Amino acid sequence: MAEEKEFRHPLGTTADEDGPSGTVRVTVIIPGLKKKLIGDKASNATIDTKFEEKSFCILVTMKDESKKDKKEEKYKYDIKQLPDSIVPEKCSFKVKKDQVVLYLRKAKDRSWSRELDDTGLETYIEDKATSHLD
């Protein structure tokens, strides 16, 4: 896997329970992301997601064909600790202009609104200076 410094952070993110019942909707803002005319895929990027019981990660690799160097822009949004469990095989995403919308299927039908309002999804941030893994 590529080193962390190669990745940019999304321009912004939001999380709410306004989607389908039993899901949390996470919107990840990626400037310049384009949606294919038909379907829910990106036309100028590859999107990799990894959903686990208490975490998820999304990697977006955008290809800019208009620039001479055709350099890739890589974005990463990595949540290490969700407020509660999700069902990974029932999670999905859709691409919209400048954003990826993730749908996390909750394992238990309880509200996450308190956690989302208080801390958002980033409930665990690893500080390299005080890493628990050292």
Automatic annotation (TrEMBL):
InterPro entries: Calcyclin-binding_UBL-bridge, CS_dom, HSP20-like_chaperone
GO cellular component: nucleus
Origin superkingdom: Eukaryota
Record Gene3D superfamilies: 2.60.40.790
PROSITE patterns associated with the record: CS
Name of this protein: Uncharacterized protein
